[in-house]
Amino acid sequence: MIDVATLSVIRRWALREHLSIREIARRTGLSRNTIRKYLRADVVQPRLAPRKLAGKLEPFTQKLSGWLRTEASRSRKQRRTVKQMFEDLQSLGYTGSYSRVAAYARAHKMERQSAQQTAGKGVFVPLVFAAGEAFQFDWSEDWAVVEGVRTKLQIAHFKLSHSKAFYLRAYPQQTHEMLFDAHNRAFAVFGGIPARGIYDNMRTAVDRVGRGKLREVNARFSAMASHFLFEVQFCNPASGWEKGQVEKNVRDARHRIWQSAPAFANLEVLNDWLEHRCLELWQEINHGLLPGSVSDAWQQEKAALMPMPRPFDGFVEHAKRVSPTCLVHFERNRYSVPAPYANRPVSLHVYVDRLVVVAEGNVVCEHPRIIERNHQGPGRTIYDWHHYLAVLQRKPGALRNGAPFLEMPHAFRALQAQLLKQPGGDREMVEILALVLQHDEQAVLAAVELALEDGVARKVHIINILHRLIDGAKPHEPITSPQALSLSVEPLANVVRYDQLRQVRHAS
């Protein structure tokens, strides 16, 4: 192999000074065939022969190429590193160096990128969507200060493909009930429902990805799509560009929204701020393809959307069995259920913000949902002391140390402290608490407070006060008598008048 300077001298002697090949060979010491080869090639610098891989890696190149293709199709978080693949090759018998494996991986990546830029995934076709035709959905993870703590949130992103109007809502998790609630709220803000929804293969929608376009769609997700009457379209695996509008919206939201987000008192306040911020950005962002802003395009597209029906009842159902202590377990927390349903199967309907217990087709009780981010502790127990009144009828002694009764109002607890000091106070306190099953609880509380003020903390006195309060709440209308019924002789406290009644008057 000759260098560039030697090739330049040979070309100058042959082409400019017209020396013979024999003479050039004599001057340079090269063979006439070598000189003739370079002159016929008509190159200005020598071409280096492609570098061959070291012989130790050659038996493993097919295996390594397959691994590199597989890892390229996975998400960034799930990919194996080249170092890990090098260690796997060593377990298969490779005795070469890591640098050879890394060089092969770099060359493979460059070849793949070159192919994508010419005829593969790096080339895209501009898409056009009609008004009301489609929307795109995606999840993202972002951070915000909620209740004084920097919190990781799951953000639901919606974007109308025609007008580019978008909507964001934050949740603590990516679960079915969160997904259903996000659809209800997004369609309400958009003012209607497009004909088609474009999704990736998220676990809350797809149970199993089949070959090609085959999908086993989750039953509850299908029920939601059927309720809102839109067609579902799923992207190919690892093909985020098929819903590129919402993917871009996820990226843009980080500097348009989250970088300037203030601290929030709770999640509900954050979501109210997100909704107003989205509507503001609709006014500020130009559409690009249509005249005016995103808001102007949305006003035109809204007429093409299907009117919003009633919200989808987006709960997730779990079969539970109530414990002997009248509790159901969910997400490491425990919630009380009325005592008659102890040791019985019930259905737990899970919503974003509440839990509803259903038995035999009837709603038994309801609790605010508690979502704990700390998975190390024992969880929390949420009691409703009303659920245990039936147990107290049979076991009044449980009132003294019963955990649910720590949640009673202050007036009841103050009355309990006095009655438990008296003989039979347990039973009497249970009978007073049972009044809330027949009367308004606030009226019973008011009667207890008045009895405590009077210093007579007894059941009979409390019942008398309660009846006076109830009767006083609905006073009788005054009775007016006709003038003819007025008394001619006013009654007097005189017993002599009774003697007049004994006189017998005979008719003349």
Please explain how this structure is put together.
This protein is of the alpha+beta class and 508 residues long. The chain folds into 5 domains: 4-41; 58-119, no CATH class; 134-304, Nucleotidyltransferase, domain 5; 316-382, no CATH class; 390-473, no CATH class. The protein contains 17 helices and 14 strands. The chain has helices spanning 4-15, 21-28, 32-41, 61-72, 82-91, 98-119, 176-190, 219-228, 244-256, 267-284, 294-301, 389-394, 410-419, 425-433, 441-454, 459-473, 496-502, and strands spanning 134-146, 149-160, 166-171, 196-199, 206-209, 215-217, 231-234, 316-321, 327-330, 333-336, 345-350, 354-359, 362-368, 381-382. The strands form 4 sheets. It has a 5-stranded mixed beta sheet with strand order 3-2-1-4-7. Strand 1 (134-146) and strand 2 (149-160) form a beta hairpin. The chain starts with a helix and ends in a 6-residue tail after the last helix.
Which structural traits does this protein have?
single chain; about 500 residues; alpha+beta; Nucleotidyltransferase, domain 5; 4-stranded antiparallel β-sheet
Describe this structure in a few short sentences:
The chain has 508 residues and is of the alpha+beta class. It has five domains: 38 residues; 62 residues, no CATH class; 171 residues, Ribonuclease H-like superfamily/Ribonuclease H (Nucleotidyltransferase, domain 5, 2-Layer Sandwich); 67 residues, no CATH class; 84 residues, no CATH class. It contains 17 helices and 14 strands.
